[in-house]
Amino acid sequence: MFRNRAFLFGLGSGIIFGAVLFQLMLFGVHSRENLEQIDSEINEKLYTQADVDALLKSERDSVQIDKQANIDSNKQEEPTPVPSEPPVEEQTAASSKQTDPDPDKEAKAPHLIQIKAGSGLTDTAELLAENRIIQDQAAFIKGMKESKKLVRAGIFLFNEGITVTEAIKIVSSQPLTKDQADAIKAIFMKD
After folding, report:
1. What is the pTM of this model?
2. Helices 164-171 and 121-130, interaxial angle, to 10°?
3. 108-188 CATH pick, 3.40.50.720, 3.30.1490.480, 3.90.870.10, 3.40.50.2300
C-alpha cells in the first residue's frame, strides 16, 4: 500500500492543502478582529452634520472674536506725535518740488479675483488689467512665459498696482479656498 506512488503523492498533497486552509482560516479570524477594532474606533470618531456645524460655528466665532480684539487693540494705541512744521523757506522749496500725488502710492485696496478654469495668459492679463492689478499686460504675459509657470484657476487676493513679478507669483500659487475667500470678503469688503 505504501509502495503505491500515487497514494503517497495524494496523501502529501492533502496534508499540505489542509495546512494552507487552516492558515487561511486563522488569518481570516485575525483579520476580522482587526476590522472590528478599526470599525469601533471609526464609529467613536463619527460626527453628525449638526455636530460638525456646531464645531465650525464655534471655530468661526472664536476667529471673529480674535479679529475684533485685534481691531480694538489697534484703535486703542496711542497716536503718533505730529512733527513740528518746517520753516517757511523749507516749505516753499518742498512745495516747488512736489508734483501731483501718485495714484499708485495711495492706499491700495485688496481685490478678490476669480480666474476661471481654461483661462489663457491673455485672458488672465486682461482680467488683471481691468481690475487695476497690473499696468502692462504684455509684460505680464512675457514674464509668465519666461518663468514657465502656469496660471492656476481659482480665487486670488491681489492689491492694486503690484509688480508683474508679484502678480506672477500670486497667479501661479495655491488659490484661496471658498471659506478663505468668504472670510476675506467679510473683513475687507463690507460695502
Report:
1. 0.42
2. 120
3. 3.30.1490.480
